Amino acid sequence: MAELWRGAPAAEALSLRASAQAEELRAAGITPTLAIVRVGERAEDLSYERGAVRRCEGTGVAVERFVLAQDAAQEELTDLLRRINGDRRIHGCLLLRPLPRQMDEKAVCAVLAPEKDIDGITPGSLAGVFTGSGAGFPPCTAQACMELLAHYGFDPAGKRAVVVGRSLVVGRPAAMLLMGQNATVTICHTKTANLAEECRRGDILLAAAGQPELIKAEHVRPGAVVLDVGIHSVDGKLTGDVESAAAEPVAGAITPVPGGVGAVTTCVLALHVIQAARRQNGLET
Ligand code: NAD
Predict the structure, then answer these.
(1) What CATH architecture applies to the domain 140-262?
(2) What is the pTM assigned to this prediction?
(3) Cα–Cα distance for residue pair 70/112, rounded to 1 Å
């Protein structure tokens, strides 16, 4: 039966680290500050925002919220992002997505200054993830997967990792981070032939397909580490991309939904804001 890799202990350790680093900055007269930008009132955005505010404020990271109406013009949002780019008090910016239909998300994201892009949404940050240059920041969710592996003492070096999902938010950057730690990586997507067979090669199986319970027992290599990034509300119950009851008897370790990867994501966010504040004040490169 799989070991349950809960996010809470990893989150606690990361929060302690964030608090200590924020304290150090505050002692130097710098208040690490995150801007949260939301367009409209989507329930998912509000829920993520609440979690992010709680975590940031709990670790000494200040938060400023900026809210635009659902029908706001794209220029209103890009003007706001430019103001945030130029505001020296703000070190990081979280733009809640998806944006409403009238906006070109790619064009909007590109406006944010890469040094304030703490969630890896700009081409500059993603280039850093893909080249391994360390510039910018990886998306928080992809980084949260790596933090879970580290917390539970699993070294990806030399292991086979299979990532299901190729989005720029999770799948692709997670694959690059795994490769950066010397795993041999396969990326699967909607056109992958025989998904179960591919998945079964993975010592690490990272599910980020956005499909409730896509991953069954037949997808899991016996003893594999299964990182379930998906989060879905099905009949009022939260579930992941993995059918946990089927996968647990086969896997070596599995992250629960809720309470797995998602619990670590906001800690990574707080740490990225702190790191951005340190970089912008010449305290690290
Ligand atoms: P997305 O829809 O943008 O991308 C899904 C990817 O999975 C696509 O690349 C697609 O090719 C692939 N895919 C879809 N169906 C597939 C199938 N049947 N077989 C193989 N590949 C398939 O989603 P996303 O933004 O990358 O998010 C993925 C999941 O992670 C979602 O459930 C989302 O809610 C969740 N998520 C969680 C967090 C968190 O903090 N836990 C953060 C962001 C996203």
Answers:
(1) 3-Layer(aba) Sandwich (3.40)
(2) 0.96
(3) 20
